[in-house]
Amino acid sequence: MRVVTAAEMRELDRQTIDEVGLPGPVLMETAGRSVAHVAFALLGQRRGARVAIACGRGNNGGDGFVAGRYLLNLGAAPECFVLAKRADITGDALLHLIAAERSGLPIRELGPDGGGALALAVSSSDLTIDALLGTGLRGEVREPFWSGIESINRLARQVLAVDVPSGLDADTGAVLGQAVRATATVTLGLPKVGLLQYPGAALCGDVKVADIGIPAALSAPRRGGLRLATADWVAGILPRRERDAHKGDAGRVMIAGGAVGLTGAPAMAARAAARMGAGLVHVAVPASLHSIMEGLVLEPMSLPLPEAGPGTLGGEAAGHLLEAMRARPCHVLAVGPGLGRHPGAVELVSVLVSGSSVPVVLDADALWAVAQAGEAATAWAAPVVLTPHPGELSVLLGVSVADIQRDRVAAARGAAQRFRAIVVLKGARTVTAHPDGTAVINATGNPGMASGGMGDVLTGAIAALIAQGVPLLEAAAAGVYVHGLAADLVAADGGCEAGLLASDVIEALPRARQHAAEGRELLPGRVPERV
Q: What is the C-alpha to C-alpha distance for residues 339 and 336, in angstroms, rounded to an integer?
């Protein structure tokens, strides 16, 4: 499903109006009708239910006028409250204001002191429709909208937002001073970025995507654009295994890492790669930790490497590892789980990324090593996937975590372009980005994943899909999706999220992969629903 910024949606509207020939008032009519039908469903289709519609002066308000007219026809009791002067309403919104008035819809223009009237209407209504500000908001919310939003949040029983909750930045999900907390949001045409990134994702409730007439040829996902990972898309990515397949057909993964006290990390990455369907998995660790690794993993094969210091890997290990990969050809190399932060790690990573002939996945301490080595560690000899959390990306980019979290999509895209690599920016609603600007937002996963080892599991899952022949961007995005889905399945089975372990997710990966391969969504409301 394609996801757009406010500017991209405006351009799609323009193309539909100017090039396809569908007039703007018709788009607004279609949008408002969809809002009305979702509103009536929220009301349980009760005739006589009271609806307060808070309208601004722009197109968002115009959608509200149309919704009110349709709700009136459906038998509800709507009333519009306009937080603007009538003289300031123009264009398509004015056309629909006049039509609504002539249809008998009560419309009240609220002056500077009209906040009390809106508050009273909101408190006595069964539903409030937020049609105040929409996607065109620039800068922080000001009066009279500040008071209007405050009244809605304090007094409304349930709230339906039109396009985006008022006060929300449609491009980033940031709250511009204050924003409406909605029960549901009807977004028009295509979902906006801000509805799928936090904090916006927590304010929009169930997201419904209304078809307003944008042609499919214009609205389809495209290279260089942004999309949401959906079950049907991931199902088309995951490789199918033939009935006569053998282990050599399912890819070979090499994982390198481990240090004293951190042997669990490469072990989990290796087990995750096996559980995600890799045919053969090797895990390379410092020689002194080899016997420990032998006891931690069964199916993956362990490989002892020479040490730079007690229980650590350095440049000498890199040469041995590359030679081992030539002797037992692997399809992907994953480096970083439990590697440790020491000078030897910097040399190891620099040699591996400049000498590997197969794609490399870098995680955890390997990302720290890249940051320490600078340009010397980014002379990739083969395609690379970076999997940072916001703290790791802040070190790589030399910016604050707050800067990254302020616009996660832009941060992931910028890092992908800078490092000429696929970047997986982990966290709630993980973003996977390609250097050409293509990016994918993920909606699976839950807060129970905020525990140790989850990143190691993801590294193994992504590496396994690359080994099975999936292109890097798709392997990374699908790996993120299945990884989160496995956590959701475990949480659903146990009835709770707290206490979720990385090992639980590893064991659930095969079930999650099958679930995804069948194109089945897990939790209703997680992915926007078309209406």
A: 5
Same domain flag for 144 and 31: yes
Q: Measuring CA to CA, which residue among 273, 239, 241, 235 is closest to residue 516?
A: 235
Within 10 angstroms of residue 240's Cβ, the number of other Cβ atoms is 6
- Cβ atoms of 187 and 163 closer than 8 Å: yes
Model confidence over 37-55: pLDDT tens digits?
A: 999 999 999 999 999 999 9
What single DSSP character describes residue 341? S
Q: Which two tokens stand for residue 398?
A: 């030399």
What's the total number of domains in the chain?
2
Whether the predicted pLDDT of 376 surpasses 70: no
Residue 83 lies in a domain: yes
Same domain flag for 137 and 32: yes
Task: Give the span between the Cα atoms of 439 and 226, in whole angstroms.
Answer: 5
**Whole-number Å distance between alpha carbons of 87 and 97:** 12
Please tell me the total number of residues recorded for the chain in this structure.
531
Strands (E), 221-287: 226-228, 252-256, 280-286
Query: Residue 49 belongs to a domain with what CATH number?
Result: 3.40.50.10260
Is residue 243 one of the residues assigned to a domain? Answer: no
> With contact defined as beta carbons under 8 Å apart, do 422 and 383 qualify?
yes
Instruction: Specify if 226 maps to a domain.
Output: no
Name the β-bridge partners of 303: 284
CA nearest 431: which of 449, 414, 448, 451? 414
What's the predicted TM-score (pTM) here?
0.94
- Containing H/E element for 353? helix 343-355
Is 309 within the bounds of a domain? Answer: yes
Residues 394 and 260 in one domain: yes
* Sequence letter at residue 46: R
The CATH number that applies at residue 448 is: 3.40.1190.20
Would you say residue 13 has pLDDT above 80?
A: yes
Domain boundaries, position 487: 231-238+251-520
CB distance 134 to 58 below 8 Å: yes
H-state helical runs in 43-182? 59-74, 91-102, 115-123, 145-155
Q: What is the pLDDT of residue 379?
A: 83
- 74: phi then psi, degrees, rounded to nearest 5: -80, -10
Task: Please tell me the distance from the alpha carbon of residue 328 to that of residue 331, in angstroms, as a whole number.
Answer: 10
